[in-house]
Amino acid sequence: MAKKKVIDLVTEELAPYLEKEGYILYHTEFVKEGRDWFLRVFIEKAPEHPDEWPGNVSADDCEKVSHFLSDRLDQLDPIEQNYYLEVSSPGMDRPLLKDEDFIRYKDRLIDVKLYESIDGKKKLTGKLIGRSDGYLHIEDEKGKVLDLPREKVSKINLTIVF
Fold first, then answer.
1. CATH architecture of 3-88
2. Which of 5, 71, 98, 148 could form a disulfide with 136 if both were Cys (CB 3.0 to 4.6 A apart)?
3. What percent of the chain has pLDDT over 90?
4. Which candidate, 55, 37, 41, 38, places its Cα nearest to that of 11?
């Protein structure tokens, strides 16, 4: 089964269960690393109120969702490849992937990796201002606003601040 079809199927099968159990699907990926395939599912606890941020999940939460999904996929048996199923939190340094992530994490520090250097740098850290018209807007440590062309950005993660 093609990667996108696997991801779509997992999303479709998980959505009602996650909603009922009080979780949110953050991201799903089906990737080959070396000889092995991995189906990775990242979940968060649903906020109790719409204006709150999603909560952290425990190892027990991940195990619960993993058992459900594993049983469901065993019943359907849609994936011809052998794979490892991993269910986890997106982590403190979670990647920003969806439009809502850029709204939710506005004004937070982010790490940006670029495909090619801008002003001699391939890695930047700054405060997330927003995203618009193909650009990512961040404020660097000197207070300068940088408008980074989206096609030059390879990865965006929250910065871990202690």
1. 2-Layer Sandwich (3.30)
2. 148
3. 80
4. 41
Q: What 3 state SS string does the chain have?
A: CCHHHHHHHHHHHHHHHHHHHCEEEEEEEEEEECCEEEEEEEEEECCCCCCCCCECCCHHHHHHHHHHHHHHHHHHCCCCCCEEEEEECCCCCCECCCHHHHHHCCCCEEEEEEEEEECCEEEEEEEEEEEECCEEEEECCCCCEEEEEHHHEEEEEECCCC
Segment 33-74, tens digit of pLDDT: 999 999 999 999 988 877 777 778 999 999 999 999 999 999
Domain 99-158 belongs to what topology? SH3 type barrels. (2.30.30)
Q: For the chain, which residues make up each domain, given as ranges?
A: 3-88, 99-158
Q: Are 24 and 46 in contact (CB under 8 A)?
A: yes
Q: What is the model's pLDDT at position 61?
A: 96
